[in-house]
């Protein structure tokens, strides 16, 4: 049973950050920047409320927000902090309706934290939900797309204040055009996507994501055996423990793509795990066999602290453990797998749930 | 003295097409598609009115329209014909104001003709004006940018009905983001840009462009010496007559770029002219010396008919004449030259007016 989070203040941020990093599966942006921006905004504007959909008026707008782009760019090109205000004002001007709450588009990585900073500045509550239950690289890889909502109102902005409003005919077109805009913006953009009335959000978002992230963060932080606590908290399979012996990474087409190889140590000596990356960890191969794959979560963590390591922070020599755990049931529906399963990323094999693939070793 | 055009019907279209091709300096898209679409729309919806700014209410919106992208793409990926309606409806929805007239963003090439088709379908008049007095490759190379208007409302759409609304912080950002969207759309987009109230358009557009294009077209069509008539109609310098001996062309970054070499024949035997292209003819070099350059107009025409040849239609062996003539005075202001002079295209030399450069031979 996860304790519901009702407020985020400076005390909660470190737990949220640890949890978001773990749910980020390497993506969503390294949590350091997002943590600092959240702490600063909370100090300036006070704690923010975390609410459920039931706490909000049905006709108010729910605004999912986050950064789009390659996390390798995000390390150096940080948000201005004004993005939340620019997005909210533009959405209200376009729709003539009031935004009553914000929500992280993705709970994973810095994208689970930046909405805290933006909400504090906006004086808005955050809904205890997100659109992924993790992080995914592409715009259409969200719960709203899976349940069939159209991407008819997406707003992107950059640090200069350029503003793009996109009404796309499909999720794939939204990704294609949104990615091009993000690259033109210099590799990252702040985005509000799939904006909708609160009354239409139930079933179209993944509820409880903030509470879950905080619970995972607390479990890992409070334990003398952080890795064991993590495995227990998320129901993970340990894929390998070892050392990073190879990292190949490039920023291309608006994504960070690459591979990392972990060479087993201790009980895993003699084995190696290769992980393929598109912003997030997509697939883990063990001697050519799939041990875990999207939409399930694959996270590389520090072997001692169990702190997740973002894909853009992977380095030769790091001592790590790789864990994998089940995605939200929404992603295991036919359309969920079509949207974010292995074939959606160009792999020529079918999704195998971690409960099956992870046990094959 | 140019005869003002007050109506466009099927009789006028061929003259308009010839004039637009000549003013296109190779760009704006080959006029064949635009002519056919105009003729079809005029047959279906009847002739359109051509009006002056004085004929319109000051608070109505003037909507400049045209296609953006590489003309090499435009040959194969033709408009759906619905673009005008999609753009107008979206502009009215966004602004809450009524569009009272359309205008070609650029009078050059097919972009001088497509607005006829769209206006006919919309039941709107066309203003006898455009934003260039010719064709230019980049979004910010328009009169509105030269006079300091901000690109705060640009709408782009594609054949699928995807819609992007852009509010940019500068003309350069508008070009950068608009180009990225156009490439994502598959290499071409239909655009309404620098939409403004009629009352603010005076001085911000180049008036008389449609009448001028039709007058040029008539002059060339009515003469037994089309090339002579063209030279007289626009006050052109003949740069060379000869044969196309080399064409190099590639579609890259949303533009058609390349060079064409014309080898002199007759009196010009022994000379060669090299023209550098970015959608439009930018600079004509004669043995390394600049004989004509942007923002002045350089047009390659058929040696016999004086029909302009679009850059994407240049072929080895064509018998051509190359003429150059002065741009609108707006482009010879400091900000005009900064926006569309040689240095704006990366050349390391200053603008030399055709009256000077053309006489150097």
From TrEMBL, chains A, B:
Residue ranges of every copy of the S-Me-THD N-terminal domain listed in the record: 13-166
Cited Gene3D superfamilies: CV3147-like (2.40.390.10), CV3147-like domain (3.40.1610.10)
InterPro entries on file: S-Me-THD-like_C (IPR048350), S-Me-THD_C_sf (IPR024071), S-Me-THD_N (IPR010318), S-Me-THD_N_sf (IPR027479)
Domain S-Me-THD-like C-terminal: 171-354
Pfam families noted in UniProt: S-Me-THD_C (PF20906), S-Me-THD_N (PF06032)
Domain of life according to the entry: Bacteria
Listed name of the protein: DUF917 domain-containing protein
Organism name: uncultured Thermoleophilia bacterium
Lineage, top ranks: Bacteria, Bacillati, Actinomycetota, Thermoleophilia, environmental samples
